[in-house]
Task: structure prediction
Amino acid sequence: MTSVREWIYSGRHAVGERWHNAPRWMRWAVIAAVIVFFYALPNREFYQWLGPIPTTGSNFGQVLFTISIYVLLAVGLNIVVGFAGLLDLGYFGFFAVGAYTVAVLTSPSSDLKTLWPWLLALPVALVLTMISGVMLGTPTLRLRGDYLAIVTLGFAEMIRVAATSSEFLKGQRGFNQIPHPPGSYSDGKPIFGVLDPRPYYWLVLTLIILVVIGVRNLNRSRVGRAWISIREDEDAAQLMGVPTFKFKLWAFASGAFIGGLAGALFAGKQNFVSSQNLELLNSIIILAAVILGGSGNIVGAIVGGGLVAYMIERFRGIEFFGVELYEYRFMFFGLVLVVMMIFRPQGLIPNRRRAAEFKDRRKEVIVGG
Amino acid sequence: MNFNALFSDFGGYTITGLTVGAIYALVALGYTLVYGVLRLINFAHSEVFIAGAFAAIWGWAALGLDRDSVASGFGSIMLYLLVGALIAAVASAGTATVVERVAYRPLRKRNAPPLAFLITAIGASIAIAEAFGIYTRRLPVGAPTIVKPDLVLFEVAGTEVTMVQVLVIVSALAMMVALDLFINRSRIGRGIRAVAQDQNTAALMGINKDRIILVVFIIGGVMAGVAGMLYDIRIGTLTYSVGFLLGLKAFTAAVLGGIGNLRGALVGGLLLGLVENYASALFGANWKDLVAFVVLVVLLMFRPTGLLGESLGRARA
Result:
């Protein structure tokens, strides 16, 4: 048993080492190949060779779009949970703010009747989500982490209740005819139409690449170092002169920004937003994705988000001993959270530093344990 | 704001608020006890409550009471109530024990960071709630009518007080008085207070820390189980997902009174129940669920230690 475990560990370690020691051009080549693969993925000519990977029940392009939205959300939540170490349980609330802002500003069924195009509503949605992140963060980020978790959970629930109950936000009837993103082919057909989900997927994929570059740079800057110091020891960071509150607020606002972006993209694709989109457990699924992938590591968050969303879609329509597996998805992810935190709190693809933090804590002495 | 609705039936809103608040207070005790000892928000406590509520209904069903049956006769009603409370308490305490053993103890042994506890707690909470949801096919389960809901016991200043309301408030108060005595007078209670003050020192003084922690979870479970049975009696149906919101409100109640403070849980629960009911009269029932969160946020901004202050250890050493 132990030998097998050691063998697996050493193997994984070797992969990590090889990656870190590989020449730069080789790493870039691998990354480029992965990106090309994902751009090619939704084409039938390509994915038909991939055996059981494409989903059978539903349109694979549509599934890929859903997965890409989850990946974007996981990358955003990773800033808050992974980098700054703040447990945000209501991350989906920001998604809702983004989607609803676009809906209210563009849809003909909205009371405002502004009928803006999608592209004009997008920056407004992003700014509003950031403001909502700051508004939520200001009273709560001064408190201990566990209170923050509960209040963010409450925030997501508040948005859901508001969306269900208020006249202005239309409840379950929702907003329809939200415009698509602009652009048309040379023959006049719109790029972002109703039938073909692929352009939306490509759009989100491109945005994910941009967001990842931005987040990576942010993480390697002064801001990122401040986040890590807050995660490791907030008191020590404060004593060293890091304005912890400011940087926690920054993390919250950046996370909110990405959540809002995902919401706005979703609204533009779906062209319908109602309170039924706002299931509270979505926040938990994204959290499970970040933890599963490896919080604090961008690649981990991407893999986690992709894996979790893909598994949900793969479960759909599959029966196992006469039960629908899709029904069990939330229970499954609940158990994933428990098992991961106990056996591998650093996630599947850990951030080296974060893994070392967990390892370090284990060595500390516990009396009477 | 609809002041007419509030003042035309002020007594009615007050008594309903107190009834709801008593249930919040019982559940809040579980949060406050665990928090006082472990400095940990036991997020899965809402599912401990749900387990008790389901167990009571299924226990009555095993005794031959289905959703349409009506109990009659004072003796048999009392018997059903006691049996229901007992089954619910055992089921909830069992769930709490499992959660402690499976989700928390391994993390304690590894000295995991506090957020890790919260994440496993959420995972456990979702997994349990979903298991009930799948088992009940996500449909509401009807409880038998043990105490007739329209049975008016007495009238105070023009407000009718029903048997159910009296039952809920009195039994919740009785449970809390018993708990208060237990914590402050008994040997185990002294152990709990000692562990709450300083775990390591208590362990060095010969207190079995793990056993005390288990006892704390069990007591919290018993309280939540009784709350679950009272909820069945008051509402009459049970859906797997109600625990989440109720748990969040009970947690708010615990923070309101001062988390870690037993008497604070009572004060916070009753207060939150009242505020919520008055607000639902003023703003409409749709917005009722928002009140708890607004209270929580405002409270955390201005007085995060709650009304009576946080302390289980400092209660009286």
